[in-house]
Amino acid sequence: MKGFLAHAERILASMVMAGVVAGIVAGAALAAGAQQQQPAAQPSSSQGTGQTADPPADQPTDPATEQGIDRAANLPSGLNPIPAAPKGTSTIFGGEIKNIDPVRDVLTLGVYGQRPMKILFDERTQVYLDGKRIPLRALAREDHASVETTLDGTAIFAVSIHELSHAPEGQYSGKVIGFDAGSRELTLAANGSRDPLKVRVAQDASIVREGQSAFTATRSGLWDLRNGSLIALEFSSDNEGHGLTNKITVYAVPGAAFAFSGNITFLNEGLGRLVLVDPRDQKSYEISFDSARTPAGRDLHLGESVSVRAEYDGNRYMASTITPD
């Protein structure tokens, strides 16, 4: 009996050993089959190593990349992958580009009567110099520029920037809103224009009064370039591209008295305002009046001929008397 048991143990050990070997062989075969079905690894884009690199197991992959799809190559024709410029109501600001920060993509625009504005720009911004398109990298500080802007969230974004390399030439008329006697810089605003004109007054500039005899009887000069004065000027560009004027005509200064006569072409008694055409110069004059001070203003009619004595206060002609002719 003991001999039989020993023989049986030897047979059982042989069977176990055979099963282990068979399992190892089968596992090796399965592994080999899996390697044959797995795609060959693509060579790494890095140079000089000659090795392949597989993405980390925990790093997500783009299904399009796994399928060999190039998204950029499959974009519809003409479609720019750069995001479109912000859409919305656009506003144009004119002024001087004082600073450009190419790191933060921010420019500083000096706008008359306001604090300097910070405006964002990027590769979507179109830049023009003297009407010609230029690269964004050529954007530079300029004294004369207009910037079309829109809101990008809460920030102001530049849709387009138009720069002038020199001041325009021609004639301009409006109201003086600033004059620096030291630099001789004159700032002029015209009705209906949001952008003031800045020019330098030449040392030998001609400054004369024009209009009614009582007004022109007083000699003119730099002292007439006070805030509120109504003037016209001719200007050109100097060697540095800045506006320079050699001829200034003064039509009214604050505190000057005037006499007008003519037919009323517009009348608003509620606002205390009338417009008449003076036949002596064929010009229209808007005159304000206070019915409490000028009782005749209550009985005025369109087309009526009147004589008006008024004083210019820097903003308007204010009637002191109105007399029907």
Gap between N and C termini, in Å?
Answer: 156 Å
What is the CATH C-level name of the domain at 170-252?
A: Mainly Beta
Please count the beta strands (DSSP E, at least 2 residues each). Answer: 17
The unreliable regions are 1-73
CATH level 3 topology of the domain at 170-252: OB fold (Dihydrolipoamide Acetyltransferase, E2P)
CATH architecture call of the domain at 170-252: Beta Barrel
| Silhouette | elongated
Radius of gyration, CA atoms, in whole angstroms: 42 Å
Structural class category: mainly beta
- Largest beta-sheet characterization: 7 strands, mixed
Report the order of strands and helices: HHEEEEEEEEEEHEEEEEEE
Q: What is the average of the pLDDT values?
A: 76
Helix content: 10-25%
What would CATH call the homologous superfamily of the domain at 170-252? Nucleic acid-binding proteins
Strand order of the largest sheet: 3-2-1-6-7-4-5
Hey, roughly how much beta strand do the residues contain?
A: 35-45%
Q: Figure out the total of helices.
A: 3
Report on this structure:
The protein contains three helices and 17 strands. The protein is mainly beta and 325 residues long. Among the domains are: 91-164, OB fold (Dihydrolipoamide Acetyltransferase, E2P) (Beta Barrel); 170-252, OB fold (Dihydrolipoamide Acetyltransferase, E2P) (Beta Barrel), CATH 2.40.50; 257-324, Copper binding periplasmic protein CusF (OB fold (Dihydrolipoamide Acetyltransferase, E2P)), CATH 2.40.50.320. The protein has a seven-stranded mixed β-sheet, with no helix packed on it. Strand 6 and strand 7 form a beta hairpin. It is elongated, with a radius of gyration of 42 Å.
